[in-house]
Amino acid sequence: AAGGRGAGRLAGRHVLVSAGGTREPLDPVRFLGNRSSGKQGVAIARAALAAGARVTLVAAHLDVAAPEGAETVPVGSALEMREAMLEHAPRADAIVMAAAVADFRPRTERASKLKKRDDAADPVVELVRNPDILAELVQRRSATGQPQLIVGFAAETGDDDGTPLEYARAKLARKGCDLLVLNEVGTDASGAQRVFGRDENSVMILALAGGEPQHAAGSKDEVAAAVVRRMTDELAASEA
Ligand code: CTP
Ligand code: CA
């Protein structure tokens, strides 16, 4: 290994990362989307590459360039992302679901463009649930018994019923992944977007196994380095 802090520690490992935001087609020209820029997922891919891993990046509509050196698989919708993730999962030592996957998609994708009509009522879009890709990846792992580290992301806001941390713990237990990276989303006191599209980030890393949440803050690259360091430690510990 090249030494230094973590350089080469993922040599020989394959890391599968999803990034960006899915777009759910309404008709040939329209979609339902979200504000994810893909910056945090791309930063994770870059940090894994820097640690010596082979990286496959399943990329949905990134606002930023995919890192050189990663095998990039472009996808559009949640269903396409699901297919790509399940296809590449069997070869991955670690999986990071950093993408913002749409929870719902329009029930039907119209074959032709939706038109305004004066003689008919305005259309209503009916939505159906998308599959939970992260939960499926966890299921696939337990079904196959493949040793694999699975990391989820959670964007949470607090409300009267719970804090972001409480919601994140419940989500981690529900999904069954090994680590969950918690972001607080929404707007800050000045009304500015707190996470989406920004270069700075502040997260908590929670482990299914328990223990104190680990705080990491800084640029999205610094946060990514902290997440990849933690992943590297967990991979090493699972083999010890
Ligand atoms: N995720 C996924 N497939 C989905 C939705 C989410 O794989 N259909 C993944 C995300 O990539 C992320 C994690 O699940 O790693 C948590 O996403 P989040 O939207 O916070 O959780 P949801 O289960 O969708 O719950 P919520 O109702 O709070 O949105
Ligand atoms: Ca969601």
From TrEMBL:
Write out the catalysed reaction: N-[(R)-4-phosphopantothenoyl]-L-cysteine + H(+) = (R)-4'-phosphopantetheine + CO2; (R)-4'-phosphopantothenate + L-cysteine + CTP = N-[(R)-4-phosphopantothenoyl]-L-cysteine + CMP + diphosphate + H(+)
Q: Which cofactor does it need?
A: FMN; Mg(2+)
On cofactor binding, the record's note says:
Binds 1 FMN per subunit.
Q: Where is the DNA/pantothenate metabolism flavoprotein C-terminal domain?
A: 10-232
An MF annotation (GO) of this entry? phosphopantothenoylcysteine decarboxylase activity
Q: Which pathway does the record list?
A: Cofactor biosynthesis; coenzyme A biosynthesis; CoA from (R)-pantothenate: step 2/5; Cofactor biosynthesis; coenzyme A biosynthesis; CoA from (R)-pantothenate: step 3/5
Phosphopantothenate--cysteine ligase as annotated region, ranges: 15-240
Q: What is its EC number?
A: 4.1.1.36, 6.3.2.5
Residues at which CTP binds: 103, 113, 131-134, 153, 171, 175
Q: Which domain of life is it from?
A: Bacteria
Q: For this UniProt record, give its keywords in alphabetical order, as a comma-separated list.
A: Decarboxylase, Flavoprotein, FMN, Ligase, Lyase, Magnesium, Metal-binding, Multifunctional enzyme
The entry's family comment says:
In the C-terminal section; belongs to the PPC synthetase family.
Physiological role: Catalyzes two sequential steps in the biosynthesis of coenzyme A. In the first step cysteine is conjugated to 4'-phosphopantothenate to form 4-phosphopantothenoylcysteine. In the second step the latter compound is decarboxylated to form 4'-phosphopantotheine. Catalyzes two steps in the biosynthesis of coenzyme A. In the first step cysteine is conjugated to 4'-phosphopantothenate to form 4-phosphopantothenoylcysteine, in the latter compound is decarboxylated to form 4'-phosphopantotheine.
Recorded protein name is: Coenzyme A biosynthesis bifunctional protein CoaBC
List the range of the whole protein covered here: 192 to 431 of 437
